[in-house]
Queue: 3 jobs
Job 1
Amino acid sequence: MPPTHRPSALATLLCGLAGLALLLTGCAPDTSSATEIPPVVDSHVVQAGNATDISRLSGRVKAAEHTTLSFEIAGKLERVAVDVGDPFNAGEPLATLDDERYRLVAQQRRAEAREAEASLIEKRQDYQRQSSLAEKGYVSDTQLDTARAGLDTAESRHASAVAALELAERDLAQTTLTAPFDGSVSARQAEPSERVAANQAILEVISDREGFEVETSVPETLIDALSTGSNHKVSFPALGGITAPATLTQLGTQPRSSHNYPVILALAEPPKGIRA
């Protein structure tokens, strides 16, 4: 009788597991239509590369060309022909000094110049005469040298008298303060009958020919983001909030206060009604 083979324990275990798997497969519900769980990823907010930060700064409008007018000489202010806000044209007289003293000085210098000219003519004729006689041997070299020295002195005195006359006439002309350009008066700092010193401010004026500009201050956190020639917009609350394009023309390198730098914006097309 052949020997009987008994299945090993391992084979029996594997068969049992296989049967259990078939059983579970047959009894498990269909999960093919179940919602899949998405994988977890990092999230980021993406900003457009051309996004621009907007910073609003306050400033003041001023004339692009402005100056303070004064007399180069001292005297008593006789007349101021314009007041604040008055327009004027280039070359128009704006203020005058009492010119009596300067007229008298000019008259004195004219007389001195005429006297010096007469002396020069006399010394020149004397030298020519002495030179002619020296050629004929009638006068010595010493006499000729003396005539030459007298002529040189007369020429120097005449030149000095002419220069003094020109200065006197210039001072006389300086008694009238004229407009350097077309514009208007922004401030008046002296009144008639007042004695004023040389270079003392009389009028502050602004020009019409260079338009307007805006002056503001930029904090140091923004200064590196600006460059000369860059374009910006300026809003005018006093004119109903209208805006105008402006170009950055000056960028300060030294702060006015602890952290603010001066900036100048030129207005290419100033809106109607704008004032400094």
Job 2
Amino acid sequence: MNKDPVMSQEPTRPFALRALMLIAVAALTAFWVAAPAGCFLYKDDPLYCPGMPNNTCVDTKPCKGDGDCDAPKGVCDVGESGVCVECTASAAAACVGNEPVCGAEKACRGCSGHGECGSGACLPDGACGEDSNVAYVGPTGSGTSCTRSAPCKTVDAALKTNRPYVKFVGTTDEAVVVENGRVVTFLAEPGAKLTRSSGGAIVTVRDSGTSLKVYDLSISDAPNNGSGYGVLVPTGSGAPSVSLVRVTLQNNPGGGISVSGGTLRVEQSTVSGNAGGGISVSGGTFDITNSFIVTNGNADQATGSEYGGLSLSAGAGAHRLERNTVAYNHAKAGTLLSAGVACSVTNLVAGGNIVTSNNEGLSFPDQTKGACTFGNSYVARGTEANTLMFKSITTNPPDFHLTAGSPASVMNAGGTCTGVDIDGDARPQPADGACDLGADEYKAN
């Protein structure tokens, strides 16, 4: 028997209506989960994260335990956001390798200071050192194990462990020699100093293949004689590598640094008060940036120094001298070098420096000598007066940071640049738009 065509369609209407409703609900759900820009998720949505853009959990997912999370966000932030993160305060051990610290945003990062490592040794790559790769040196140490709990008293003992890092605490009085292809990095607690009370140079580096990197250490107060250098690469020592970062070289009568070959890197460091002169490079290559090279040399005519700030007569290869403050250095009158910068190298990249108020005898002659050019550097004879308004040139030690009163000849006069200054402040400062000249990028407050 034929069915009524109208009656035969009625039973399908509820099914069709339900299907349309399901499609509409699915579309709305997809809309809120996908949440295009300008649309906000609501509290009952599984991806709701208040405070995040559009209240949406970005690159996260809800969780009830660590088992719900996958690396690199393998920790469930239970009781807080309820999403997977890299770490929490109670699960800081999830941070390992070169990112051992759990940061404020519950993300792992590299260490930024020794106090962030249980070992007391933050390595330059952001990892935390340990007894297996760090030899510890301190004035109260003894023995030869050089562990953190039983440090050595001498650097010689630390070097004999053949560990790649040596960590300094306090003052160490010792002549240090790094040679025979040894590769080692010196680390230091704030205020740590390496000195030498008798003899010659504090640190001597020699032999091709040898590499010494130094971070945050003061190498100061060498013996009061012509061989009392802070760091020395003697003539005929091959081509070692020396890198000094955030290092202080002060009051070394022979000179702050004297290098006859190899490679020299000086960055974010202070070289001051060295009677024999600041930095002398007579071979190899150099890279000197973001450093104060100030108040070095001696202007006495009988006992004075041949140069003041820098004497650069290095060999073939690329050289760099950028964003340094070379000021108030001294040399004896009539020197063939310079109280400021004596430079006779080729293939030099130089710019952004301040070279001023360096005196020979009683006069302030040309601040540079030699064939080198210095780009957009501020090079001016100056006087004893503090015309650039450095923070303080009369205190001990002096302070050559720029101030709000420093003139436009050095403030925002350095054009475009990137990176950081001697203090680690960004170049340029956000409100400035252009970089300052010299080692310091002025930062208000």
Job 3
Amino acid sequence: WDSAMTCFCNTIKAHIEAYRLVHRIYREQKWDTPTVTVNTWGSASYGMDKFIQDLLMARENGIAHPGIHGYLVEQRDRFNALMGTIPYSNGPQFIKRRVDTFVEKGFWKRITPKHMHDLCDLVYQGDEAVLTDVIGFDLYDPFLGNNLDLGKPRLFGIRMKPYQWHVNPGALEPLVAAYSWTSKGKPLHVLENGMCYRSKGSQVWP
């Protein structure tokens, strides 16, 4: 968990540095303005997805540095309430919801004050408030819990391989709504959706 969280935060820092560098180079070369964004999974876990958008766009949304933690908590609670209205595709709803709750709580337990301090300091460095040009995300199934199968053909199974994952088109509308809350009217781009695989009944393979 600790190593994963450090990697997660370093990836966000790398995006911020790359965004500023790419835009500076384009300005200096007098090229057309580039489009730079992140490509998140489209997850029902706030910490694994929309947290990134809200962090990167906090300055654009008028949030001062001292108020960013409270702002992120407010957005998290709003996002989680909306995700709680989307039913799971099949199986025991309560158990699957507990899986996603566990992951979400794990994120907030493991992101340390130092992680947050370093991220926020970098966001608020310099004069440029903009750190993403569009909102980009993938749409498969936002719920980790839907990759847990209980019952036949065996008591317990996890959908580990990408070609086994569910697709959840019903999640598109609520996810778009959530991304729009803090998007400042920026375009929303679905960057990935679906996969080509062979299937026969419930059996699929690459």
